[in-house]
Specification:
heterotrimer; A mainly alpha (105); B mainly alpha (561); C mainly alpha (256); A: 105 residues; mainly alpha; 2 domains; 3 helices; C: 256 residues; Four Helix Bundle (Hemerythrin (Met), subunit A); elongated; binds copper (II) ion
Chain lengths: 105, 561, 256
């Protein structure tokens, strides 16, 4: 990789780091809004690292596919587990409330 | 005899077995064949160890009262049986033992992509095994092989330190499995011989490839699960322990995200073995090659989407249970595709009932029963009744023992002449197969019946009405144990005293049969060109050497039989 | 494999290679490099799933109890986290640079880049040590050992509330001034924080060890434009460690 490409990627990463810290301190988008902003910036940083530092743009397609499949696996795992837990969480809350009530008596 | 045949005979003098000598040359070997055999030895030992635990459990269950051991020891015995069988035997057995030996030779290469990693993975396995077995001396783990929280994270009796050492053992074993998977994927991807496109690969390679994908993608989640469990146990982390605000159902999500796909780590390579054996002994081009190949991948991918079917009664939400139940049926499709294609291959084939074929046919029979009873368990309403009963025990033993162990022996008898250059005794092998088949069914079929009548699994005692089933099952277990010992005896006898095997005793056309038996140290002087793996007409039987040779190398007088 | 290679095999058997760095089962350096690269990507794939478990636990607990995470993050020092991010990003730059140097046969550049990378890795761990020791000193542990001291609760500006403030010695007197409203299960945040950063830290340490080995080989002059696989693969691993941190930083330190 050429020196400008290396330094350019690095400067981009630093800029995005400054941006995400800046947004954290300076902009209030609500809990979820700030989380989304932070994640979008983090994903931009990750893409820079993957594309240039890890030279996925110049590399064999297959290596990218491995990485994409792994990301897919993580997303699958988190989303399904998250969906289920958030579905049964009200039952857990209910049970805890009942227990607390019973304890008061 | 042609020049080619002469070359093969002469190369017999220098095989991988006698290329270097001494214990050290085995311990530090980078040769995939020797590593495969070391895996074979250790997994066979694990099978025997797990088998002893199984027989102890079955003996204790002869009657509802205490026969042999206290209930605490009983809990430890069934846990050790499960943990040893799953993590030390089934998962590494076919891919790491047979796969290691056969895969590079099938590809016509000298070794797997990363030989050092291969050896490392073996020693990681050994270290993991030591951790796991050490737990026996630390009052032995009694949580069941599934390590469910909160019992495993907070129980103050029985399993205290053993949970940690066992969990660390399985954590370590996981990396052995991951490294094997990485090695095989890299080898198959980059080292196929000239003329072997993806769709000219032997089906065993497809099966191992699909297995490796699961090993690489699922096993790390098991690793992090057990790491969390160990830290939870040691430092009171509170991720899974409800007493600290953790979520024990989340542990089950973590555990089954690996452990359901792990079922396919166990059975996919077995299916690969069966695909090779069925084709060869039917002397007929395997039917539906692409469907069998693609169904391996389909099983691997769908296998990642169904883990929640182990959690229908755990407190999992209705939504998730419904989705998981539906997806579970989907797995039946690629599995059935395989079975139908094997059966269709048999149709109008010229079938030879040698021992490997008998094991393979038993596999199809038992796997079909195991698979179909899985449908009952995947049905939400029925599962509520059957969950945690002997029905489940029988179901997964039909898949894991009836499936994987049968295929393991099919594969071992099939490739044994290649491993050691010696033929086995057909009678011993066939009688052993019969004993295993009968013993297996006698052991596990009654378990379906008592399970459906409500006998819960893992219980130390039971109501009188279940006693006949338990006793039949125990008798069967001893027959099964004896059959397995006999099958091993047949193999050991063959390796030591068997008559010399020809290079290609079965007339199979995958590449491993085109090198000598046993293979030379480097497998091939240079990478051969790919053959059509299922073109059996390319070979004819040569009576002089008692094996099959290429048509063009056959003696002119012999002609095609 | 082309015909010429076939012939050379046949002529010399298996020991026709003169380069000991080329394993006997590969055709040429390119083949070996591509295979190694595939292997390291597979390894990175499994690393992703390995960390994935922790990210899963994180998302579930944060999704269900965001207030715990908001409060927990107040205990973390955002400035130190940001500095550490920059340190790690710089080490990624030098790691990428080391690959470039190896490709260009620039031995001095290679050694310098590796030394800088290792230096940054130690810097990262140093800052991490400062953070950890501060927390552990103030009783901010994981799970059941979470007994924060009065100082750190005040320092973190935890919301005033109805739960009594713990005394100097950590004991809780119900009649004491009620200023600190500790969210129930606040310790879960620190369980996750210590697991994630701890596991990441272990990966940093592993990276240092591998880089020390690469450094030794670089000084010995093993690498050149034809053979530089190990430099490239270690750099890939190092970038992954960076990648995980890129997400850990906003997820743990930048919670609104
Ligand atoms: Cu399952």
């Amino acid at each position: 990789m050429s020196i400008p490409a290396l330094l350019g990627t690095f400067m981009g990463l630093i800029f995005l780091t400054a941006l995400t810290v800046g947004v954290h301190y300076g902009v209030d988008l609500g809990g979820k809004g700030n989380l989304i902003a932070a994640m979008v910036i983090a994903t931009m940083k990750a893409s820079l690292v993957l594309a240039f530092f890890m030279h996925l743009v110049f590399d064999k397609r297959y290596n990218f596919m491995i990485f994409a499949t792994s990301v897919l696996g993580v997303v699958l795992f988190i989303s399904i587990a998250f969906t289920d837990v958030s579905q049964y969480e009200p039952m857990v809350q209910q049970r805890q409330a009942d227990l607390a009530k019973a304890a008061e008596k | 005899m042609t020049a080619d045949a002469a070359h093969i005979v002469s190369s017999r003098d220098d095989t991988y077995l006698n290329h270097t000598k001494g214990l050290l040359s085995w311990v530090v070997t980078l040769d995939h064949k020797r590593i495969g055999l070391m895996y074979l030895l250790s997994t066979a030992l694990a099978l025997c160890l797990g088998g002893v635990f199984a027989l102890l459990v079955r003996t204790e269950l002869w009657g509802p009262e205490e026969n042999l051991m206290s209930h605490d020891v009983y809990n430890q015995m069934f846990t050790l049986h499960g943990a040893v069988m799953v993590f030390l035997f089934i998962i590494p057995s076919i891919p790491a033992a047979i796969g290691n030996f056969i895969l590079p030779i099938m590809l016509g290469v000298k070794d797997v992509a990363f030989p050092r990693l291969n050896l490392a993975s073996f020693y990681i396995y050994v270290v993991g095994a030591i951790f796991l077995v050490t737990s026996m001396y630390l009052s032995a783990i009694d949580t069941g092989w599934t390590f469910y929280t909160p019992y495993s994270s907070s129980a103050q009796v029985g399993s205290q330190s053993a949970v940690m050492s066992s969990a660390m053992g399985v954590f370590i074993l996981g990396f052995s499995s991951i490294f094997t998977g990485i090695n095989f994927i890299a080898t198959i991807n980059t080292m196929r011989p000239k003329g072997m496109g993806w769709f000219n690969m032997p089906l065993f390679l497809w099966a191992v490839y699909a297995t490796s994908i699961i090993q690489v993608l699922a096993t790390p989640v098991l690793a992090i699960t057990l790491l969390l469990l160990t830290v939870e146990r040691a430092f009171g982390l509170g991720i899974f322990d409800p007493a600290l605000g953790g979520d024990p159902v989340l542990f089950q999500h973590f555990f089954w995200f690996y452990s359901h796909p792990a079922v396919y780590i166990m059975v996919l390579p077995a299916m690969g073995v069966i695909s090779e054996v069925i084709g060869t002994f039917s002397r007929k081009r395997i039917f539906g090659y692409k469907f069998i190949a693609m169904s391996s991948l389909a099983i691997a991918f769908i296998g990642f989407l169904v883990w929640g079917h182990h959690m229908f009664t755990s407190g999992q939400s209705k939504l998730a249970s419904m989705v998981f139940s539906g997806l579970t049926y989907l797995v039946a499709v690629p599995s059935a595709i395989k079975v139908f294609n094997w059966l269709t291959t048999l149709y109008k084939g010229s079938i030879r009932l040698n021992a490997p074929m008998l094991y393979a046919l038993s596999f199809i029979w038992l796997f079909a029963i195991g698979g179909l009873t899985g449908m009952f368990l995947g049905t939400l309403a029925v599962d509520v009744h059957l969950h945690d009963t002997y029905f489940v025990v029988a179901h997964f033993h039909y898949v894991m023992v009836g499936g994987t162990v049968m295929a393991l022996f099919a594969g071992l008898y099939y490739w044994w002449p290649k491993f050691f250059g010696r033929m086995y005794n057909e009678t011993i092998a066939k009688v052993a197969c019969l004993l295993v088949f009968i013993g297996f069914n006698v052991t596990f079929f009654p378990q379906f019946v008592m399970g459906s009548q409500g006998m819960p699994r893992r219980y130390y005692t039971y109501l009188e009405q279940y006693q006949p089933f338990h006793q039949i099952s125990t008798v069967g277990a001893y027959i099964l144990g004896f059959g397995i010992l006999m099958a091993f005896a047949g193999l050991i006898l063959a390796a030591l005293k068997g008559p010399k095997a020809p290079d290609n005793p079965w007339g199979a056309n995958t590449l491993e049969w085109h090198t000598s038996s046993p293979p030379p140290f480097d497998n091939y002087a240079s990478q051969p060109e790919a053959t059509d793996p299922y073109d059996y007409h390319a070979l004819v039987f040569d009576e002089k050497i008692g094996g099959w040779v290429k048509v063009e190398d056959a003696p002119a007088t012999g002609g095609e039989a | 494999m082309d015909a010429a290679a076939h012939e050379s095999h046949d002529a010399h058997g298996h020991d026709h290679h003169h380069d000991p760095r080329l394993a006997h089962h590969f055709e040429d350096h390119q083949h070996q490099f591509d295979t190694g690269k595939l292997g390291i990507w597979l390894f990175l794939g499994q690393e992703l799933l390995f960390f994935g478990g922790l990210f899963c636990a994180y998302s579930i607990y944060r999704g269900l109890h965001p207030e715990v995470f908001e409060e927990g993050a107040k205990f973390l020092n955002t400035n130190l986290g940001a500095v550490n991010t920059v340190v790690l990003l710089f080490s990624s730059l030098t790691a990428a640079w080391s690959v470039r140097a190896a490709q260009l046969n620039n031995k001095k550049g290679l050694i310098l880049a590796i030394v800088l990378t290792i230096g940054c890795a130690f810097g990262f761990l140093g800052i991490k040590y400062v953070e950890y020791s501060h927390k552990l000193h103030e009783g901010v542990f994981w799970g059941q050992s979470f007994h924060p001291t009065r100082e750190i609760l005040e320092e973190a500006h935890v919301t005033p509330g109805v739960v009594p403030m713990p005394a100097e010695d950590g004991s809780v007197d119900p009649k004491a001034e009620k200023i600190a409203m500790l969210k129930p299960n606040l310790h879960t945040f620190f369980s996750i924080y210590f697991m994630m950063t701890g596991l990441h830290g272990i990966h940093v340490i592993a990276g240092i060890l591998v880089y020390l080995w690469i450094l030794r080989r670089a000084i010995r002059g093993d690498f050149n434009s034809e053979y530089y696989g190990p430099v490239d693969f270690t750099a890939l691993y190092w970038h992954l460690v960076d990648l995980v941190w890129i997400y850990l930083f906003p997820l743990l330190y930048l919670i609104h």
